[in-house]
Amino acid sequence: MVALDITETSLALAVAGGYISVVGLVSYFVKEKLFMSEALLATLAGIIFGPIAAGFFDPLAWVGGNEDSLNAITYQITRIVIGIQVLFTGIALPKAYLRREWLSLVTLLGPIMICAWFITSLLMWGLIPGLTFLECLIIGACVTPTDPVLANSICKGRFAEKHVPLHVRNIIVAESGANDGLGFPFLYIGLYLVLMHESSHPVHSVGGAIGEWFYNIVLYQICLSIVIGAIIGYVARKVLRFAEERSLIDHESFLSFGIALTFFTLGIVGVLGSDDILCCFIVGNSFTWDDWFRVQTEDHAFQDVIDQLLSSAIFLYIGAVMPWNHFGDWYGITPWRLVVLGILVMLVRRLPWVMVLSRWIPTLPTWREAVFAGFFGPIGVGAVFYTQVALQVLPDDGTRTALRDVILPVNYFLVLTSIIVHGITIPIGKGFQQARSITLTRSQAGLTEADRVSRLPAPLPLGSDALRDQTERELERSRSETTVDSGENGTSAAIRFDLDPNRMVDKGPMVARPTGILAQNETPPRTPKSSHPGTPSRSSLSGGGDLPPPVQMGPLRPAVGASDDRETSEQRARGESWLEGERVVVESDDGETVRVMTRDEYDRFTSHR
């Protein structure tokens, strides 16, 4: 007899697959036009289909209503997702990034993380009744690390690639990958100070608890995981290159090697009891230290596909397991306390300290970049993971009942706040920018051309006679240094210029270096990857003409051809010079800041050409 077989597994698969499929159909419009966050959409879907609403996606029902089993599943899911994300983060960073940007990373992972930890704990101590400051330090440590999953969603997409400099995106994802593994020392110092009061614990003094923290966490988990990660990444890089050069590995296995390496690292380091999350990040950096694997896989979207699937799945899950019944009057935690706590944490957890210490963060040379990096330090999957770690370690004998019952709703609410705030900031900011542009356009509608004041010269249209004449003059002036390729059909030629990073580092005059001749309307070829493999050339000018004037809120790069919203990441990365207030920031091939110029210096530079 035919009958329905409605099981939790079937419902979960239907919801997850249906959400990814439906959102995928409009994903370009939602993400690239509305600038909506993937994490926000998935969380909203989890709430709608979760037990609080439709009830089709209920993780608690999967385990028969046992909350301890749900916590165990949540721990393993978040552990795997974060491990994959931080290893992919390490792979995506430029060549030897940790060595080059060590000062910026030390500042972000040291004093700024400590300040964020203490400030968040103080806010919790003042707003959450019935907790000691030591207990608040444990809760605050869970939300101190920035989340690599949310950071990836912020630093990818058309808006980020058009409006956020590459070096800012790199430092945000690098910090999020590293500090997710470095959250253990902050969490366990509070846990050991709590456990020393337990009769079953072998240590009962402050000195003993600190000593236990040092050799168990700092030495065994942090230092050992760094050593293991460096070795695994190095060996994997050599072995994979050996197999690839001798045609022993096929294309599919080559692309999937990174995710297989994640599972291997999580398993081996997990068996040893060391910090598997930090180890995955170090493996990713060591594995692609010479940029070879990143260059080989940059034209394939395998990692991006995995990122999208993991991000959608994990935030769908988080939306479904939100403890809504604990967001009311739970241990005296009324809704207004949670709202105020969420707002204050978003404002003072990171932003002030990044601003204050920005002089020791060379990667962020301007205050605008420091504000952006300070504000976008999201709380997400990492906070859920560390919350589950704390619940596993905290005693369940009734001595810390309030802490065990409070830590989960407080941290989940902060995760929800971060998803909403960081998910709507860019759409709202973009909306205000468009509204302001419309207002300015309407206010100038009745003015004549002579009455309007513009600080930027009018650009020459591509293919115009003036541009062609100017191109020919540039061609005559550089004929001694370059060769002319008139093209197969005798079309006119245009010069493509690069800003020479080596010349710009010097304090001497800045000059333009002609690097080749391209036929007009010809697609520019990819430049050789000699100094920084896998990274497009800087400030490439295809179609001729002078370097265009800087535009606020966007990179200083010309159009390669007809405008296309679906331009590739490589095309969008060309010509990364950014206007930050009255200063122009010029990046190197891999997103590193080469020089900061005033607007006058930039204008003088372009006039030399």
TrEMBL record:
Q: Name one Pfam family in it.
A: Na_H_Exchanger
Which spans does this entry mark as compositional bias, Polar residues?
Answer: 518-541
- Alphabetical keyword list: Antiport, Ion transport, Membrane, Sodium, Sodium transport, Transmembrane, Transmembrane helix, Transport
Comp. bias regions, Basic and acidic residues: 466-482, 497-506, 563-586, 597-609
Q: Name one GO cellular component term.
A: plasma membrane
Instruction: Provide the topology term for how it sits in the membrane.
Output: Multi-pass membrane protein
Q: Which residue intervals make up region (Disordered)?
A: 451-609
- Tell where it localizes: Membrane
- Per its UniProt record, what InterPro entries does this chain match? Cation/H_exchanger_TM, Na+/H+_antiporter_fungi
GO-annotated biological processes: proton export across plasma membrane; regulation of membrane potential; sodium ion export across plasma membrane
Residue ranges crossing the lipid bilayer per the database entry:
12-30, 39-57, 77-98, 105-125, 213-236, 257-284, 330-349, 370-394, 406-428
Give any GO molecular function from the UniProt entry.
sodium:proton antiporter activity
Q: Does the keyword Chaperone apply?
A: no
Q: Report the residue ranges that make up the Cation/H+ exchanger transmembrane domain in this protein.
A: 25-427
Family the entry assigns: Belongs to the fungal Na(+)/H(+) exchanger family.
Q: What is this protein called?
A: Cation/H+ exchanger transmembrane domain-containing protein
